[in-house]
Every structure is written in C-alpha cells, then in structure tokens.
C-alpha cells in the first residue's frame, strides 16, 4: 500500500531494542478510554523500570475520536498530564472522522493540541503494523 501523506510516526523506522506499541480507541466509552491510557502508562512504567525504551501511539477514530475532543473528552485532564509526563506517548486523530463530524456538526471538532491529525486512523494503524509496531485494542 502506498500513502501520499506520511506522518512522522509512519516514516520512522523501528530501532532495535526499542519497543513499539499502537493502541486503538474507536468507541465513545469513558471506561475504554481510561483503559487505553492505563495500558499506555503501565507499559511505559514497565519498560522504564527495566531500562528499555518504548514508543506508544494512541490512534483515535470513529466514536473514539471523542477521547481527543476538547469539548467532549471524558479524559481531557488526564490527556494534559500525558502530554507533560510521557513524551514517549503520542496521539493520532483520524482525519476521516474529523471530516465526518465537521459535516454533521457544521464546524470542525476542537481536537486537543497534543494530537497529530492523520488522514485515516485505520490506515495509520495498518502502516504502523507494517513497520513492525504491535497493535492492541484494549
């Protein structure tokens, strides 16, 4: 599969000795959003504890994009702390979902600053998988 728009995470080649984890959130469910953040924090803590590096990308699409919306996120405060305390965790917001919400609501949804906009969340996950990342849907 060839992509015309490649994000920095997709262009990154996996380095030996670094662990790569992508977490999917596609449901507007506060418990699942909390679980995704807990998994990211726990995996980070584990690898830091044994002196190894881990890169984690949380990809939000479909109804899961609410996690990254400034106006509807039930985990907004916690997202802010992630941005400050865990630089190894990045967030991706699906452009297709943003476009759909924009059509439905008449205005683009406000997405948190720490989130990178990607053309398509699922394509982002596929590209990461093809680059050696482990994909998990908690």
Tell me the total number of β-strands: 5
Strand order of the largest sheet: 4-3-2-1-5
Q: Termini distance?
A: 26 Å
User: Segments where pLDDT lies below 50 for 5+ residues?
Assistant: 1-12
Would you kindly provide a written description of the structure presented here, covering whatever features stand out?
The structure is a single chain. The protein is 40% helix and 21% strand. With 138 residues, the chain is an alpha/beta fold. The protein has one domain: Hypothetical Protein Ychn, Chain: A (3-Layer(aba) Sandwich), CATH 3.40.1260.10. Strands 4-3-2-1-5 form a 5-stranded parallel sheet, sandwiched between helices. Strand 3, helix 4 and strand 4 form a beta-alpha-beta unit. The longest helix has 20 residues. The radius of gyration is 14 Å and the shape is globular. The two termini are 26 Å apart.
